[in-house]
C-alpha cells in the first residue's frame, strides 16, 4: 500500500514537472507562443470546456457513436465467433477472408463511408463497427479454441445439452479474452470516430469541434484542450473496462494477468 | 497459435518436398483439398459480389473485376523497366512511403532509446508512467488540426503525426521488456563483471528483444493507418490524397482500388516484418510465444 502511494506521488511529481517544463519552454520564448500556447492556457481552456454545453454535446456525440459501434461489434463478433467455432468447415475458409479484410486500414474506408451513408453518425458507427469487429472476433476464436475440453466433456457426460455447455463452460472461460479484445477495440474505436469526424466534417463530435477551431483562425489552445479531453476519455473508458474485468473475472487467471 | 499452424505448414511443405521425388499424386490431391477447403468462401464471396453488383448496377459498389482493372490501370500498367509502376504510382507511393517509414523510423529509434533509459531506472519509470499513459491515450488524429496550424502540409505534418502516434507501443514495450529481464541473468552478468554497454548489448537487449519487436510490428501497422488519415486531411499527394480525389470526383472504382491497395500494403508490411522478426529472433525460446 505504502509502495503504491509512493508510486502515485512520483507520478504526480512527473506530471507536474512535465507541465512546468512545457510552460517554461513557451514562456522563455524557446518555442514561439504564437504557435504553441503555454501549458497553463491549454489546461485552463480544457477546464472551461467542461462547462461549455456546445463542447459537451460534441463529446456526447462522439461517445455515442464510439460506444454504439463497439457494442454492436461485440455482439456480432462474439456471435460470429461462436458460429465459426461450431462449424469447422466454415471456420478455416472464414479465416482466410478475415485475414484479408483485417489489414485494410479502417480509416481508408472513410471516403467510402461518406459516399455510402447520408449522415456522419452512420458513417462513424459503421466504421467503428468495422474496425472493432476484428480484434474481438479473433480473440473470441482463440479463446473458444482454448476452452478446456475436460470441462466440456464432464458437463456432457452429466447429460447437459449443447446450449448448457456453451453457457456454463465455453462462454465463461472465453469471456476474459473476449474482454481483452473489447479493450483493444475500444482504443481503436476512439481513433476511428475522431478521424471520421475530422475528415467527414459536418462539425459533429470532438473531431468536428477540432476542425472548427482550426478553420476559425487557428485557436491552438482550444485544439490542444480538445486533444486533452480526447486523451482523458480514452483513459477513462480503459480504466472502467479494466476495473470491470478485474471485478468480473476475479476467478480467472487471465483477468489478473491482463490487469 | 499461428505458430502451431505455421509449424504444421512448414512440416507439410517439408513433407511435400521430400515426397517430390516419388509420384505423389495423393499428396497433391490432399494439398489441393486443403486449398479448396480454405479458399472456397473467399472465391464464393467474390463471385457473389461480382454478380450482385453487376445486377444492381449501383455506382457506389463497383464489381471486383472493375476494381482490379482500375487498380492495374492506375498504378501497375507502367513499363517493365519501372517494375510495371506507372508515373502516377511513383508520384503517389513516393511521398506516402517516405513519410510512413521516416515517421516510423523516428518513432522506433526514439522509442527504443527512451525505453532503454526509462526502463533502467525504477524512479524514472514511476515519474513518467502516468504521463506516458495519458499521451498514449490521446488519439493521434486529434493532434492533426493543431499540427496543421504549426507545420508544413506536405511531409512534416505526416511524419510528425506518424512519429507521435506510433512511438508509444515501441516505448512502452521496450520499458516492459527491460523489466522482464531475468534476474538470474543479470546477477550472473554481475558475477562475471559484465557491466555497462556490454551488459546492455549482451544481456538486456537480447532479453528485451521479443517485446521490442512486438512493439515495432504493432507500430508499423498503426503507422500505415496514420499515414492514411494524415493524407486524407492535409495532403495534396500520396495514396490518401488519391482516395479523397477519387471520392470527390465520384470515381468509385478508383476509390475502391485505393482501398484494396492499402489493404494489400497492410498485409504485405505485416508479413515482411514477421519474416524479419522470425529470422532475428530465431534463437529465442520466448520469442515464439510473444510473437503472437
Mind explaining what this structure looks like?
The complex is a heterodimer of chains A (259) and B (292). By secondary structure, chain A is mainly alpha-helical. Chain A has eleven helices and no strands. Chain A has helices at residues 2-27, 39-49, 53-86, 88-101, 110-116, 120-145, 149-157, 162-200, 205-215, 220-248, 253-258. In chain A, α2 (39-49) crosses α10 (220-248) and α8 packs parallel to α9 (205-215). Chains A and B meet through α1, α4, α5, α8 and α9 of A and α2, α5, α6, α9 and α10 of B.
Short key terms for the protein model shown above:
heterodimer, A: mainly alpha, 11 helices, globular, disordered C terminus, B: mainly alpha
Separation, N- and C-terminal Cα atoms of chain B: 7 Å
Along the chain, the helix and strand elements of chain B come as HHHHHHHHHHHH
Fraction of residues in helix of chain A: over 70%
User: Pairing-aware structural class of the strands and helices of chain A?
Assistant: mainly alpha
The largest β sheet of chain A comes out as: none
SS field, number of helical segments of chain A: 11
* Morphology of chain B: globular
As a whole number of angstroms, the C-alpha radius of gyration of chain B is 24 Å
